[in-house]
């Protein structure tokens, strides 16, 4: 930990002092954990950031191993917030819930617990910690370490199943967002307007900002409205999906889906362009968009008669086992409904129309392209139609 109290009860942050002065403090002062009262050890090597450590057999309730990368990042964030004139406390212990957030921030009547997470975290611990803060009307704000950022393209990154639990949405008007910070480069990475493409791949608006040029409120909001250029990136992936040799597509789920296509007499490269469209709620689906959207289109919508009012209920029954519970995403205050979002996209393309919240009509038949060239052309037309709506 970065902060402890000396024998006079005065809080001390070792990292604020030069190494030579820390060495004098080590010999002349005693330091104690502000949570449990145990005496703690001064750690101050030539390469590590100066900090305090409990003894190996400590009984402290909030002891947790934190690496040097985490300690530096936490200190950077604390100093960054303090330099903005904000009311912040480092490693404040909350006895009611026996938690010690990395940083506690007060903005008027709002209290925020900032947690800087660099190591793997058990999903249950994320849920429990978030729930505990909210019991005290404290809003958790998670910033992931830059060491967890797995960038795979200009607007694309891979998120593990656990990382996806950190997806954040504050209200219905907000898109998904995530924040990263790297103490090695002194940079934030703001990931905004995030959309899942399936298989752990996520698209979005990526911004790398120097810490000194970043204000705290940027972490809580989108910088700008939805960018239609993100649809262009989606189109490129969809074209790869049609033209990539099938042998390159591996995995049990994908093989199962291809077997289902084969039994239906369809081929991946010649699916209707209504299949594999971007919806913000894709993160809640267990299968990639081409899988569940093709099942919905070909097993239900394709067989519907034109201009007849039907219920949405069969859509949800068909895909009920494919939807993840909203509880897996504790930082999303208003969960998306990917099935309804997809049907709304089809309505914007004039394939269906909603009669009310629970019923729709099919307006045009679902047709298949005759060859790959036509399929690619149809994909382009649909993406261009969606771009005009933003």
UniProtKB/TrEMBL annotation:
It holds the Pfam family CoiA_nuc. Residues 16-62 form the Competence protein CoiA-like N-terminal domain. Residues 232-376 form the Competence protein CoiA C-terminal domain. Residues 66-222 form the Competence protein CoiA nuclease-like domain. It comes from the Bacteria. This is Competence protein CoiA. It comes from Sediminibacillus dalangtanensis.
């Amino acid at each position: 930990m970065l902060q402890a109290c000396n024998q006079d009860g005065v809080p001390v942050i070792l990292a604020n002092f030069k190494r030579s002065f820390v060495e004098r403090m080590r010999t002349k002062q005693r330091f104690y954990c502000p949570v449990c009262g145990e005496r703690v050890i001064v750690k101050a090597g030539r390469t590590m950031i100066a900090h305090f450590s409990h003894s190996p057999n400590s009984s402290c309730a909030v002891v947790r191993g934190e690496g040097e990368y985490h300690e530096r990042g936490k200190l950077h964030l604390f100093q960054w917030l303090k330099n903005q004139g904000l009311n912040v406390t480092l490693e404040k212990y909350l006895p009611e819930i026996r938690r010690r957030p990395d940083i506690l921030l007060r903005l008027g009547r709002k209290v925020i617990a900032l947690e800087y997470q660099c190591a793997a975290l058990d999903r249950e611990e994320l849920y429990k910690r978030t729930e505990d803060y909210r019991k005290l009307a404290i809003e958790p704000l998670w910033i992931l370490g830059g060491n967890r950022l797995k960038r795979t393209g200009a607007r694309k990154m891979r998120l593990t199943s656990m990382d996806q639990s950190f997806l954040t949405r504050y209200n219905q008007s907000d898109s998904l967002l995530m924040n990263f910070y790297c103490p090695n480069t002194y940079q934030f990475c703001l990931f905004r307007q995030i959309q899942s493409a399936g298989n752990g791949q996520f698209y979005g608006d990526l911004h790398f900002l120097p810490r000194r040029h970043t204000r705290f409120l940027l972490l809580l909001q989108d910088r700008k409205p939805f960018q239609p250029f993100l649809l262009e990136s989606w189109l490129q992936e969809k074209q790869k999906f049609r033209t990539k040799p099938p042998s390159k597509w591996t995995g049990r789920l994908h093989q199962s889906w291809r077997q289902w296509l084969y039994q239906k007499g369809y081929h991946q490269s010649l699916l209707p362009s209504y299949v594999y469209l971007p919806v913000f709620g894709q993160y809640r689906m267990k299968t990639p968009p081409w899988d569940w959207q093709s099942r919905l289109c070909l097993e239900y919508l394709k067989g519907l008669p034109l201009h007849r009012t039907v219920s949405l209920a069969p859509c949800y029954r068909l895909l009920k086992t494919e939807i993840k519970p909203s509880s897996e995403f504790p930082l999303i205050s208003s969960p998306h409904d990917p099935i309804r979002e997809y049907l709304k996209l089809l309505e914007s393309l004039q394939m269906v129309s909603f009669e009310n919240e629970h019923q729709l009509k099919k307006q045009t038949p679902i047709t298949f392209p005759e060859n790959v060239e036509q399929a690619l052309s149809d994909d382009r037309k649909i993406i261009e139609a969606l771009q005009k709506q933003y």
